[in-house]
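Structure catalogue
Derive C-alpha coordinates from sequence
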Amino acid sequence: MYKMSVIIPCYNARDTIAKTLYSIAMQSIAADVEVLVVNDADNLSYSDILSKFDDLNIVYVQREKNGGCGQARNTGIRNASADYVCFIDADDQFTSPITLEIMYNRIKSEKVDMLAGDFESEMRQDNGIAIKKFEKSPVWCHNKYYRRQFLIDNNLFFNEKLRINEDMEFHQLLIDMGGKVTYVPFCGYMWRDNAKSVTHESLYKNKKQFVVASAEYIRDCEKRGMGGEKVVRRILQNLVMVYYYYQIVLDDTPENKDDYLAVCREYWKLADKYTVNVSDEEITRVFLPIMKQQCSLIPSVTFTEFLNEIKE
Protein backbone atom coordinates (compact mmCIF):
# COMPACT_ATOMS: atom_id res chain seq x y z
CA MET A 1 0.00 0.00 0.00
CA TYR A 2 1.34 3.42 -0.96
CA LYS A 3 1.56 6.19 1.61
CA MET A 4 0.45 8.95 -0.77
CA SER A 5 -1.17 9.21 -4.19
CA VAL A 6 0.03 12.30 -6.07
CA ILE A 7 -2.44 13.30 -8.79
CA ILE A 8 -1.19 15.33 -11.78
CA PRO A 9 -3.90 16.74 -14.09
CA CYS A 10 -2.20 16.88 -17.45
CA TYR A 11 -3.13 18.95 -20.52
CA ASN A 12 -0.64 20.17 -23.14
CA ALA A 13 2.09 19.69 -20.55
CA ARG A 14 4.92 18.06 -22.52
CA ASP A 15 7.18 21.08 -21.94
CA THR A 16 6.76 21.15 -18.17
CA ILE A 17 5.74 17.78 -16.71
CA ALA A 18 9.27 16.35 -16.60
CA LYS A 19 10.30 18.94 -13.98
CA THR A 20 7.19 18.11 -11.96
CA LEU A 21 8.06 14.41 -12.07
CA TYR A 22 11.69 15.10 -11.14
CA SER A 23 10.46 16.95 -8.05
CA ILE A 24 8.47 13.85 -7.06
CA ALA A 25 11.36 11.48 -7.85
CA MET A 26 13.60 13.40 -5.44
CA GLN A 27 11.18 12.90 -2.54
CA SER A 28 12.54 10.95 0.41
CA ILE A 29 9.47 8.65 0.29
CA ALA A 30 9.28 8.45 -3.51
CA ALA A 31 9.25 4.63 -3.39
CA ASP A 32 6.07 4.80 -1.29
CA VAL A 33 4.29 7.27 -3.56
CA GLU A 34 1.81 6.50 -6.34
CA VAL A 35 1.85 9.03 -9.17
CA LEU A 36 -1.33 9.32 -11.23
CA VAL A 37 -0.82 11.25 -14.46
CA VAL A 38 -4.32 12.05 -15.71
CA ASN A 39 -4.32 13.13 -19.34
CA ASP A 40 -7.35 15.36 -19.89
CA ALA A 41 -7.70 14.38 -23.56
CA ASP A 42 -5.03 16.60 -25.12
CA ASN A 43 -4.22 14.01 -27.85
CA LEU A 44 -0.51 14.11 -26.99
CA SER A 45 1.73 11.19 -26.08
CA TYR A 46 3.77 11.29 -22.87
CA SER A 47 5.21 7.78 -23.01
CA ASP A 48 8.73 8.97 -23.91
CA ILE A 49 8.78 11.35 -20.94
CA LEU A 50 7.25 8.92 -18.45
CA SER A 51 9.65 6.14 -19.49
CA LYS A 52 12.53 8.20 -18.05
CA PHE A 53 11.08 7.80 -14.56
CA ASP A 54 11.30 4.03 -14.08
CA ASP A 55 11.84 4.47 -10.34
CA LEU A 56 8.45 6.17 -9.91
CA ASN A 57 5.23 4.22 -9.49
CA ILE A 58 3.39 5.94 -12.33
CA VAL A 59 -0.19 5.16 -13.28
CA TYR A 60 -1.17 6.80 -16.57
CA VAL A 61 -4.90 7.49 -16.97
CA GLN A 62 -6.26 8.67 -20.32
CA ARG A 63 -9.54 10.57 -20.22
CA GLU A 64 -11.74 10.25 -23.30
CA LYS A 65 -13.12 13.78 -23.16
CA ASN A 66 -11.62 17.06 -22.00
CA GLY A 67 -13.32 18.28 -18.84
CA GLY A 68 -10.92 20.66 -17.16
CA CYS A 69 -8.71 20.39 -14.10
CA GLY A 70 -11.54 19.54 -11.70
CA GLN A 71 -12.70 16.55 -13.69
CA ALA A 72 -9.12 15.34 -14.11
CA ARG A 73 -8.60 15.55 -10.34
CA ASN A 74 -11.83 13.59 -9.79
CA THR A 75 -10.54 10.88 -12.11
CA GLY A 76 -7.38 10.79 -10.04
CA ILE A 77 -9.26 10.51 -6.74
CA ARG A 78 -11.34 7.61 -8.06
CA ASN A 79 -8.28 5.76 -9.36
CA ALA A 80 -5.97 6.41 -6.40
CA SER A 81 -5.07 3.55 -4.08
CA ALA A 82 -3.35 5.32 -1.15
CA ASP A 83 -5.14 6.49 1.99
CA TYR A 84 -4.02 10.07 1.34
CA VAL A 85 -4.01 12.10 -1.87
CA CYS A 86 -2.64 15.42 -3.04
CA PHE A 87 -2.64 17.34 -6.31
CA ILE A 88 0.17 19.02 -8.19
CA ASP A 89 -0.23 20.86 -11.48
CA ALA A 90 1.87 19.68 -14.40
CA ASP A 91 3.94 22.87 -14.37
CA ASP A 92 4.46 23.05 -10.58
CA GLN A 93 7.13 21.46 -8.38
CA PHE A 94 7.79 20.23 -4.87
CA THR A 95 10.71 22.37 -3.70
CA SER A 96 11.93 20.27 -0.78
CA PRO A 97 12.92 16.58 -0.92
CA ILE A 98 11.05 16.00 2.36
CA THR A 99 7.77 17.74 1.45
CA LEU A 100 5.73 14.57 1.06
CA GLU A 101 7.36 12.87 4.05
CA ILE A 102 6.59 15.80 6.36
CA MET A 103 3.04 16.24 5.14
CA TYR A 104 2.24 12.51 5.15
CA ASN A 105 3.50 12.08 8.72
CA ARG A 106 1.59 15.15 9.87
CA ILE A 107 -1.79 14.32 8.32
CA LYS A 108 -1.56 10.74 9.57
CA SER A 109 -0.57 11.69 13.13
CA GLU A 110 -3.11 14.52 13.35
CA LYS A 111 -5.90 12.24 12.06
CA VAL A 112 -7.41 15.08 10.00
CA ASP A 113 -9.26 15.12 6.70
CA MET A 114 -7.20 17.93 5.15
CA LEU A 115 -3.75 19.27 5.89
CA ALA A 116 -2.82 22.66 4.45
CA GLY A 117 0.69 24.04 4.08
CA ASP A 118 2.24 27.15 2.58
CA PHE A 119 3.50 27.53 -0.97
CA GLU A 120 5.56 29.86 -3.11
CA SER A 121 4.26 31.36 -6.31
CA GLU A 122 6.38 32.36 -9.28
CA MET A 123 4.81 34.97 -11.50
CA ARG A 124 6.55 36.21 -14.63
CA GLN A 125 6.09 39.77 -15.78
CA ASP A 126 5.92 40.84 -19.43
CA ASN A 127 9.66 41.61 -19.36
CA GLY A 128 10.41 38.03 -18.32
CA ILE A 129 11.43 38.84 -14.75
CA ALA A 130 10.03 36.40 -12.20
CA ILE A 131 8.53 37.55 -8.93
CA LYS A 132 8.26 35.05 -6.10
CA LYS A 133 5.72 35.37 -3.33
CA PHE A 134 5.14 33.33 -0.20
CA GLU A 135 1.50 32.43 0.15
CA LYS A 136 -1.03 30.54 2.16
CA SER A 137 -4.54 30.25 0.84
CA PRO A 138 -7.70 28.36 1.81
CA VAL A 139 -8.70 28.25 -1.86
CA TRP A 140 -5.99 26.69 -4.00
CA CYS A 141 -5.06 23.00 -3.94
CA HIS A 142 -1.36 23.84 -3.72
CA ASN A 143 0.39 22.00 -0.87
CA LYS A 144 -2.83 20.53 0.49
CA TYR A 145 -3.32 16.89 1.42
CA TYR A 146 -6.55 14.94 1.88
CA ARG A 147 -7.76 11.74 3.53
CA ARG A 148 -9.19 9.95 0.53
CA GLN A 149 -11.80 7.98 2.49
CA PHE A 150 -13.37 11.22 3.75
CA LEU A 151 -13.79 12.37 0.15
CA ILE A 152 -15.26 9.04 -0.93
CA ASP A 153 -17.57 8.65 2.08
CA ASN A 154 -18.97 12.15 1.59
CA ASN A 155 -19.10 11.95 -2.21
CA LEU A 156 -16.93 15.05 -2.24
CA PHE A 157 -15.50 15.72 -5.67
CA PHE A 158 -14.75 18.84 -7.67
CA ASN A 159 -17.86 20.32 -9.26
CA GLU A 160 -17.65 19.25 -12.88
CA LYS A 161 -19.70 22.23 -14.06
CA LEU A 162 -16.82 24.54 -13.09
CA ARG A 163 -13.52 25.10 -14.86
CA ILE A 164 -12.53 28.11 -12.72
CA ASN A 165 -12.89 28.40 -8.93
CA GLU A 166 -13.78 24.72 -8.65
CA ASP A 167 -11.16 24.40 -5.90
CA MET A 168 -12.77 27.24 -3.93
CA GLU A 169 -16.13 25.48 -3.87
CA PHE A 170 -14.51 22.12 -3.09
CA HIS A 171 -12.70 23.47 -0.02
CA GLN A 172 -15.70 25.41 1.23
CA LEU A 173 -17.81 22.25 1.14
CA LEU A 174 -15.09 20.17 2.79
CA ILE A 175 -14.83 22.62 5.70
CA ASP A 176 -18.54 23.33 6.09
CA MET A 177 -19.58 19.67 6.08
CA GLY A 178 -17.37 19.17 9.11
CA GLY A 179 -14.07 18.01 7.67
CA LYS A 180 -11.24 18.18 10.19
CA VAL A 181 -8.61 20.59 8.91
CA THR A 182 -5.26 21.65 10.27
CA TYR A 183 -2.45 23.90 9.05
CA VAL A 184 1.30 23.41 9.17
CA PRO A 185 3.67 26.34 8.48
CA PHE A 186 5.79 24.41 6.01
CA CYS A 187 6.50 25.59 2.47
CA GLY A 188 7.55 22.86 0.08
CA TYR A 189 5.59 23.64 -3.09
CA MET A 190 6.16 26.04 -5.98
CA TRP A 191 3.17 27.23 -7.99
CA ARG A 192 4.25 28.52 -11.38
CA ASP A 193 1.65 31.09 -12.36
CA ASN A 194 1.06 30.32 -16.04
CA ALA A 195 -0.19 33.32 -18.01
CA LYS A 196 -1.73 30.92 -20.56
CA SER A 197 -3.83 29.07 -17.99
CA VAL A 198 -7.62 29.27 -17.94
CA THR A 199 -7.39 31.33 -14.73
CA HIS A 200 -5.74 34.14 -16.70
CA GLU A 201 -7.91 33.85 -19.77
CA SER A 202 -9.89 36.91 -18.76
CA LEU A 203 -9.98 39.03 -15.60
CA TYR A 204 -13.71 39.56 -16.06
CA LYS A 205 -14.42 35.89 -16.75
CA ASN A 206 -12.53 34.96 -13.59
CA LYS A 207 -14.63 37.32 -11.45
CA LYS A 208 -17.86 36.20 -13.06
CA GLN A 209 -16.97 32.56 -12.50
CA PHE A 210 -16.48 33.28 -8.80
CA VAL A 211 -20.17 34.19 -8.66
CA VAL A 212 -21.06 31.03 -10.58
CA ALA A 213 -18.96 28.90 -8.20
CA SER A 214 -20.57 30.58 -5.19
CA ALA A 215 -23.98 29.71 -6.59
CA GLU A 216 -22.87 26.11 -7.11
CA TYR A 217 -21.82 25.99 -3.46
CA ILE A 218 -25.41 26.83 -2.44
CA ARG A 219 -26.86 24.28 -4.87
CA ASP A 220 -24.56 21.60 -3.50
CA CYS A 221 -25.54 22.53 0.07
CA GLU A 222 -29.20 22.12 -0.92
CA LYS A 223 -28.54 18.71 -2.46
CA ARG A 224 -26.71 17.60 0.67
CA GLY A 225 -29.28 19.02 3.06
CA MET A 226 -26.67 21.35 4.57
CA GLY A 227 -27.75 24.46 6.43
CA GLY A 228 -27.26 26.25 9.71
CA GLU A 229 -24.96 28.99 10.88
CA LYS A 230 -21.83 27.78 9.05
CA VAL A 231 -23.54 27.74 5.66
CA VAL A 232 -25.27 31.09 6.21
CA ARG A 233 -22.00 32.74 7.16
CA ARG A 234 -20.25 31.23 4.13
CA ILE A 235 -22.99 32.54 1.85
CA LEU A 236 -22.62 36.01 3.37
CA GLN A 237 -18.83 35.91 2.98
CA ASN A 238 -19.18 34.95 -0.66
CA LEU A 239 -21.81 37.65 -1.16
CA VAL A 240 -19.39 40.29 0.12
CA MET A 241 -16.73 39.06 -2.30
CA VAL A 242 -19.28 39.11 -5.13
CA TYR A 243 -19.89 42.76 -4.24
CA TYR A 244 -16.16 43.47 -4.08
CA TYR A 245 -15.63 41.98 -7.52
CA TYR A 246 -18.48 44.15 -8.81
CA GLN A 247 -16.34 47.18 -7.98
CA ILE A 248 -13.51 45.71 -10.08
CA VAL A 249 -15.90 45.10 -12.97
CA LEU A 250 -17.14 48.70 -12.79
CA ASP A 251 -13.58 50.03 -12.76
CA ASP A 252 -11.92 47.70 -15.31
CA THR A 253 -14.61 46.38 -17.64
CA PRO A 254 -17.75 48.51 -17.20
CA GLU A 255 -19.12 47.13 -20.48
CA ASN A 256 -19.67 43.85 -18.61
CA LYS A 257 -21.74 45.42 -15.84
CA ASP A 258 -25.14 44.10 -16.97
CA ASP A 259 -23.81 40.61 -17.66
CA TYR A 260 -22.19 40.47 -14.22
CA LEU A 261 -25.36 41.69 -12.50
CA ALA A 262 -27.34 38.99 -14.30
CA VAL A 263 -25.31 36.20 -12.68
CA CYS A 264 -25.44 38.08 -9.37
CA ARG A 265 -29.24 38.00 -9.52
CA GLU A 266 -29.14 34.26 -10.04
CA TYR A 267 -26.87 34.00 -7.00
CA TRP A 268 -29.22 36.14 -4.92
CA LYS A 269 -32.19 33.91 -5.76
CA LEU A 270 -30.32 31.04 -4.15
CA ALA A 271 -28.84 33.05 -1.27
CA ASP A 272 -32.02 34.86 -0.29
CA LYS A 273 -33.74 31.80 1.18
CA TYR A 274 -30.77 31.30 3.53
CA THR A 275 -30.28 34.96 4.48
CA VAL A 276 -33.90 36.12 4.74
CA ASN A 277 -33.78 36.13 8.55
CA VAL A 278 -30.25 37.49 8.88
CA SER A 279 -30.07 40.85 10.64
CA ASP A 280 -28.29 43.90 9.26
CA GLU A 281 -25.92 43.66 12.23
CA GLU A 282 -24.84 40.15 11.22
CA ILE A 283 -24.27 41.22 7.63
CA THR A 284 -22.17 44.13 8.91
CA ARG A 285 -20.09 41.78 11.08
CA VAL A 286 -19.25 39.76 8.00
CA PHE A 287 -18.90 42.72 5.66
CA LEU A 288 -16.49 44.97 7.53
CA PRO A 289 -13.53 42.58 8.13
CA ILE A 290 -13.53 41.47 4.49
CA MET A 291 -13.71 44.98 3.09
CA LYS A 292 -10.95 46.17 5.43
CA GLN A 293 -8.67 43.65 3.75
CA GLN A 294 -9.58 45.17 0.38
CA CYS A 295 -8.66 48.72 1.42
CA SER A 296 -6.99 49.50 -1.91
CA LEU A 297 -10.39 49.78 -3.56
CA ILE A 298 -12.77 52.73 -3.14
CA PRO A 299 -16.30 51.45 -3.82
CA SER A 300 -18.25 53.05 -6.66
CA VAL A 301 -21.53 51.91 -5.12
CA THR A 302 -22.43 50.98 -1.57
CA PHE A 303 -23.20 47.44 -0.49
CA THR A 304 -26.85 48.43 0.02
CA GLU A 305 -27.03 49.88 -3.50
CA PHE A 306 -25.55 46.68 -4.89
CA LEU A 307 -28.11 44.54 -3.06
CA ASN A 308 -30.91 46.70 -4.44
CA GLU A 309 -29.48 46.12 -7.94
CA ILE A 310 -29.58 42.35 -7.68
CA LYS A 311 -32.86 41.91 -5.79
CA GLU A 312 -35.85 41.36 -8.02
Remarks:
- The chain has two domains: 4-200, 203-310.
- The longest strand covers residues 181-193.
- The beta strands are 4-10, 33-39, 57-62, 84-87, 93-94, 114-124, 130-135, 144-147, 181-193.
